[in-house]
């Protein structure tokens, strides 16, 4: 209940079927569950990403800034689209961190350590970044 008003219980209109395939009920939908990929695989992904990243010059490892990006992947371990910002610290340095993270994600392709047989678990990844995730320039 919001402001004493009853909740809106009207049914949602059906989503357009355009561009969808049979059995693809969540096409363009938000990530509804976190990827259940083993922590060792995530650690390997992060290690690989760090080899391709440099901390933007205006940032230091001590900066308290964080961004979270939604990354859409193809089965061959490449970015399917530009990463999408879903969360960020209220900071002037946030855009710098986001740009650095996107550059690193693009430079490190392909992510061959991601197992093709588990693509359903990693086709959409929500990844958090802080200055500590980057190599010092």
Question: Which strands sit side by side, in order, in the main sheet?
Answer: 2-1-3
> Rg from C-alpha positions?
18 Å
CATH class of the domain at 39-58 and 65-133, named Alpha Beta
**Helix content, binned percent:** 10-25%
State the end-to-end CA separation.
51 Å
Strand content: 5-15%
Major sheet details: 3 strands, antiparallel
Mean pLDDT: 79
The gist of it:
With 137 residues, the protein is α+β, with helices and mostly antiparallel strands. The chain has helices spanning 39-51, 94-107, 119-122; strands at residues 67-72, 84-88, 124-129. 23% of the residues lie in helices and 12% in strands.
Describe the overall structure.
The protein has 137 residues and is α+β, with helices and mostly antiparallel strands. The protein has a domain at 39-58 and 65-133: 2-Layer Sandwich (Fusion Protein Consisting Of Minor Coat Protein, Glycine Rich Linker, Tola, And A His Tag, Chain: A, Domain 2), CATH 3.30.1150.10. Helices cover 23% and strands 12% of the residues. The chain has 3 helices and 3 strands, in the order H-E-E-H-H-E. The protein has helices at residues 39-51, 94-107, 119-122; strands at 67-72, 84-88, 124-129. The protein has a 3-stranded antiparallel sheet with strand order 2-1-3. The termini are far apart.
